[in-house]
Amino acid sequence: MKLKFSFFYPKSCLPFFLLAVATSAFGQTQLPLVSDADSTKPMNMDATYTRPFLQLGKMPVALGGYVEANTAWTSEDGVSEGLSFQVPRVTLFASSAIGRYIKFLTEIEFEEGGREINVEYASMDVQFLPALNLRGGIILNPIGAFNQNHDGPKWEFVNRPVASTQMLPATWSNAGFGVHGKFYQGPWTFGYETYLTNGFDESIIDNPEGRTALPEAKENGERFEESFNGRPLLTAKTAIRHRQIGELGLSYMGGTFNKFEDDGLTVDKKRQVHVFAVDFNTQLAATATTILGEWAWVLVDVPDTYDPQYGNKQYGGHLDIVQQVFSGPILRWQKAAFNLAARLDYVDWNVGNFDNTGDSIGDSLFGISGGVGFRPTAQTVIRLNYVYQWKHDLFGNPPAHLAGWYFGLSSYF
Amino acid sequence: MQNSTKILFLAGLLALELGCEKTFPSAPEDATLLDGPVEGLSNDQARQFLAGDKAFNAEIFTAATGLGPLFVATSCGSCHPGDGKGHPTNALIRFGQSDSSGNQFLHLGGPQLQHRALPGYGPEQIPAGAPFSKLLPPANTGLGFLEIVPDAEILALADPDDLDGDGISGRPNWVDLPGYLSPRPDAIAQHGKYIGRFGKKAAVYDLLQQTANAYNQDMGVTSTYAPFDTYSGVEIDPEVPNKTVEDVVFYLRTLKAPIARNTTKADVAAGKLLFEQSGCASCHMPTLRTGASRIAALEFREIAPYTDLLLHDMGPELDDGYTEGSALSSEWRTPPLWGLGLSKNSQGGEYHLLHDGRANSIETAILLHGGEGSGSRDRFKALSDTERRQLLAFLESL
User: Fold this and answer.
1) Helix B242-254 and helix B43-53, axial crossing angle in degrees, nearest 10
2) Looking at the complex, does the CB of residue B10 fall below 8 Å from at least one CB of chain A?
3) Element (H, E) at B70
4) Is the confidence at residue B192, as pLDDT, over 50?
């Protein structure tokens, strides 16, 4: 039996986070590369498939996964919880080419040392044309970029972007169906995805966080079985990519989140949630710089007579800049790389002003992070980050200051 | 191996930096914070303090854990952020009582308005014709000390008939005890009523009563102490266990008293003198002594709360027409002034003073003193600019 690595993307293209580093490393690999017909120009939407897989001989199933191991030393307003070690997640993926133009991929995540096991993704894709694929199963809703492109080893930061995970619900997957596809025109690629899935529930405005929080809906495991209110969540994304310039994505996700009817009786009015996001990424080949980010707006129909700590408008996002400072042989690795990275995080969980004082409502966070990443090979990153955050409470009182050092290891396997 | 040397060098630099605690924000000085425990708690007391801290600040109620359906806010900490005074957004309204004959609007949802509701429910409204008051959340610090100031000491400060003729009377609010409370051993009763000392009208006997009421009236959460649901009026299963209520009460009891700042500055010292000369100290008593307590860290101490825990008639301008217990609607309990200078840090950067937050500066709060406070207010008005500045510097240092 022969081991071989398969990639669903060719060496000439960069997975969008791994920038120049990825190319230089993967490009040199001795192992045969298998390319998928529709991914000659991978976009963010291809992230689930553009991962290193291990193929065992002629077995129709390819396996892969990644692990993250971190240690954190953090302090809030001078009070430190000390040093702690964590393995936030181990993820396994398996993909299978069921037949010509029919494939299946699943991603299973073990969190909290295996106490929580989530099927993050399990979908079948049937390709009628490159421009028309049917996808069904547990899908990753394509809102913003991070949700579909969340693998630990792709990032120079231990922490996931705050807005993507604490305002948007990444990683956010649901049972549903939809179509996706791509068109090509010279250096341009145009991609679209649209799905109907199960979705949010009332926990987004009734939760122990005490703020409007889309991620709270992830607690409801029943969304893989049935919709909370019988209304689908629509997610749609279009993205355009120019081979030299980069990629720009626009996405929308929305629907009714509350139970307005029960057993045929009306119990509330229909309340909507709308999410809009833009994301972009680009690599400046000349300087080996990668710039990427996303920004999103959340609008939620919160009743006027409800607690104002549950805001009806939120926005936030992140901007990452990764600069390769070295690539080449280091110690025993021929194609190693050294990256410097910087990140800005911002979230305002409650946009607006108080009715009675006119003052601006707080509940926001601003963060800066800096990091160094050492990649002995493209699939593995050893990273050291420093994070500083200013966190304002609801009333805009003097902020809490949070700082932390993070050291971590993350790798595909 | 030039590259690896470079890397080792970089790694070494980073390790150096890692070792440097300077990269962490420094802790704010204790005197600038209202929260934190009194000194001298034993280990088991520290544990209970932390349990109470969590229930007070971190337990946000939801529909599933008992919130509402009618409520005012979802956690103690949202109204008393950092244990400080609250923001006008979380003001609450009480209605239905205009004199000592009791609340005439209990059947219409009194005494407290729950003006917020879970989605799908309609909140309460103030019934037509009901007198009402808007109340801003006060700071919660040092209350354990105030709770054990002996009744005799409070009575000694009272002068209900103004026998000394200084224009300031001061009397306790005599209140009925709820069935679950037994009076403290040194309690002094009058016609079966006891001295209330918490709340803006001093209508609440102790911190247990305040806490049980808060769960019930502010958050719509029932306990064995206050088992009636504010929405249905029906007795329902407790939604918060007694243990949690006890922990929160212990937390309130053992929150430290605010620490004065800048006390050695000349302005502050001069201001303190002016405070006394202007007659402020007749009501805002600079020192009180605590009595016996099961918590050693609290008992027999001299404290500097700047209150006499008594009711004073503050004149028509501060009279909302609403009252509690045996207080007149124009009467308010002297609020403690300790922690005053830190109020802005929990009220969103501005002062919101007096019972309903109507005063946006300390000066305005003083100028709104009427009734028994008018003599003192006039003396304040007569101060020179420098003297006013000194008095304010003193008040801000508290």
Assistant:
1) 110
2) yes
3) strand B70-71
4) yes
Per-residue pLDDT tens digits for A217-272: 998 888 888 888 889 999 999 999 999 999 999 999 999 999 999 988 999 999 99
Q: Which residue in A77, A357, A405 has the most chain B C-beta atoms within 10 A of its own C-beta, making it the best mutation to test that interface?
A: A357
Q: Are the CB atoms for A78 and B24 separated by under 8 Å?
A: yes
- What are the CA-CA distances from residue A274 to residues A142, A200, A214, A363 (Å)? 14, 11, 11, 20
Q: Which CATH fold topology does B266-397 show?
A: Cytochrome Bc1 Complex; Chain D, domain 2 (1.10.760)
Q: How far apart are CA B73 and CA A1, in angstroms?
A: 65
- Residue A207 is nearest to which of B28, B62, B91, comparing CB atoms? B62
Chain B's closest residue to A362, CA to CA, is: B348
pLDDT at A8: 31
The verdict on ipTM greater than 0.85 is yes
Residues B213 and B226: beta-carbon distance below 8 Å: yes
Q: What is the pLDDT of residues A173-210, one digit of tens each?
A: 999 999 999 999 999 999 999 999 999 999 999 999 99
CA distance B269 to B263: 7
Nearest-Cα residue of chain B relative to residue A395: B348
Interface contact B36, partner A, CB < 8 A: no
Q: Residue ranges of the domains in chain B?
A: 32-140+188-253, 266-397
Does 1.10.3720.10 match the CATH number of domain A14-412?
no
Q: Where does the pLDDT of residue B16 fall: very low under 50, low under 70, confident under 90, or very high at 90 and above?
A: low
List chain A domain ranges. Answer: 14-412
User: For B47-65, how does the pLDDT look when each residue is reduced to its tens digit (9 = 90+)?
Assistant: 999 999 999 999 999 999 9
